[in-house]
């Protein structure tokens, strides 16, 4: 200290604050005996420093300068509040009332003197900008720096103010003048204080003092400690009260704790036990660090009394009292100490793409996520290192601005095209705060494009905006700082983290980082996180991330408005997005997740139809043959094989930017960083101090029952390969039947065991305390689909989270669709399910009897394509070159299935009926001709209704041709043909039946050529009749039977007609 100290103030814990008047500097010292040591912490005030006060309740100081009143934290010396004094006035001195909820500040000027009275928050140290009332006072003798020029009585009722020749007395609660006390010698009074007069005797008077030791919280009004902890979880944490009694050994004292519940005004006293006599009865009493003299039975050198007790939710005042031989003692002598029992405040960390992102335009702000045009997503682009090309992109702190509460990318007053994500959850947390269940909650949005390290190091707040780019450096990273503040201001002294989706991985990462760094600036958070609630978190990764990064599939938010961003743009963004790679299935995923009945899970499958596909990179060898040699099979199930595939180590070429079918090659550095992340967090737990017990409660909540949850990718040959429901070898001539020949396609492998994005085992990887949400049953009961992105819109899930926050013993009691055991999930789903996929130029849709629609929406325009999933538990998905939809098998009225041609060529239709993930039946239509405008309609209840398609080729509403599925064709016989013809209602029935029977007899005799010719004749006669569905069905059956003729007797003179040439056939015979 080179400059002379103007004055000092002594605070708690031997902290001394030295004030320098002219420079306005406050320097922190620590007293050790007669030695004073600088701590290195200091504060520069805004004006000329005149006085300092120390609050006894918290570690707060107040500096009074000539222009301001500045509260600050004593530990850290950080500013808290800075109300400014009226112009022309000079701050001189101040005093707290005993309860420290008011601050009186004396200010002087040539225009008159006054006392400004402020509300004061003793917990936070905040002082409002304006006083609650002002007391005019006479002029002072002098403005003496560092001198106390105000005093207040111990009961807080009277305020004493020195003046010229008098001491003025005021009512401290109203400011009214009470009286003047004249100085007998007429001298001016400058300083003033109030002290107690105590009559001393040789006997030891009873007294109470606080227990020294580091285990107790710094919440006292005297220099000592009273309870550990000073904040705790209501009904869960035990509050340990301790006090030292000193008195005569000849008299046994009665020591008790007096508690006042400030929220209910209920007062009660509890008798405290002598630590020395009770230690044998309490095996868990902590005596570490305790001076033995305080438990040796000698009251004259002090004995510890204690009480351990749970408390319900509330804020409490307390003090200690002792009675000994008619004498009493109280701690504190004036006022009370404080503690609170309650529930932890809540921090909500959203998932991938669930924080809105903005950019400032030339005039207006532009929301670029969610996007309403492709250019918005292009603006989000990242460079090769994963850094934003636009460093000024930001999110916002306000929950309804920083979080995806609901889709807002298009104006839609009806709400028909909207989808809620966090809207109800935000309202739920607001209610928890407003009804006092928790003190506070905050959303922690972030720039989800960036690496976790950048997110955790960033978050600079400027006027409600949050910048996470490294160019906006901050010493107080937003997420860490908010977590600490929520904990410190909560009723329990703790914080509960609710993390959705990728937010769970980010939560694990931030806590692991603290744990791994003993010098982490937020190390204290390890003891302040009470509960971590992971909701639908892909802890071990998800195959959905592969579809996104390799092919740009599944990047639409909201899902049914998925075409505001092109898949090419979405894939380009994901290619350099660290967070996308962090969601890849990890090594732990591959070792823990098992396909139904299998020893492993197949993330990438190579279909047998790839035998008909070649690639220039493979030197003319078929794709299937090459991969069989390279990978040793057609199922990629190991980490090393996946790595080879991602990087192109197998030799396959990188896809062009506009080629969304072939997989892109991935950046090795990004893959390695994701691997390193998962190596740390996949085995992470909350046993921070390695004592074998978790230090934070971890709750995992998984969604289940969504039928289009992706568990793998299947690469097939062209539009004619098999999908996951019909694994069959497709003849090579079908591959070459198309103009383009055989081409690659990528198709989904689905499972019910997930929430639409996350496979269930990945969402419960830690397995400590798990809950399961039955999304399938929820949709049935509530007539609305909820999946991964909108899972927090489910009321029973929100109530589960609320029950966990409130520490309820059975948090799922009375909650529907929520279970605490995986075995309780209705995995048979109570009924069958239809999966339908189509390939080539057709649209397909389904509607139920109430008009609920699944497919391309009628609200679509030329510029924007929307789609519907209005039937409960339905899905509609464009994937690779195909369209996929699913609905439960109809149990009452039938569905209306509609197929419409959008071009010329051929189509493939696959239909599977399954229970759980087990396929029971299939119907497959392969190589069916299609022309633009063609329609087919089927009344559909189950897969048995799809044995045939009646196709209207010319759009006149009448069927022109009937096509059988492969499975139906296999069952067609001459007996079936004869039976159908016999049921015709036509005059030519007998002749037609005779021809059919003759054909059958010739076939049975082996006279195939004659049977074949007879069938052709029968077909020609059938075509002369009116083209009813019955007639067309018989014609189709004849076509099937002729194709079944042994090859040497089938000259193929009759082939299936090209649909364009069908109209007008046999006109010359009519």
UniProtKB/TrEMBL annotation:
Segments for region (Disordered): 1045-1070
Start-end of Basic and acidic residues biased regions: 1045-1063
GO biological process: lipid metabolic process
Gene Ontology terms, MF aspect: O-acyltransferase activity
InterPro entries tied to this protein: AB_hydrolase_fold, LACT/PDAT_acylTrfase, Quino_amine_DH_bsu
This protein's name: Lecithin:cholesterol acyltransferase
Species, as recorded: Candidatus Nomurabacteria bacterium CG1_02_47_685
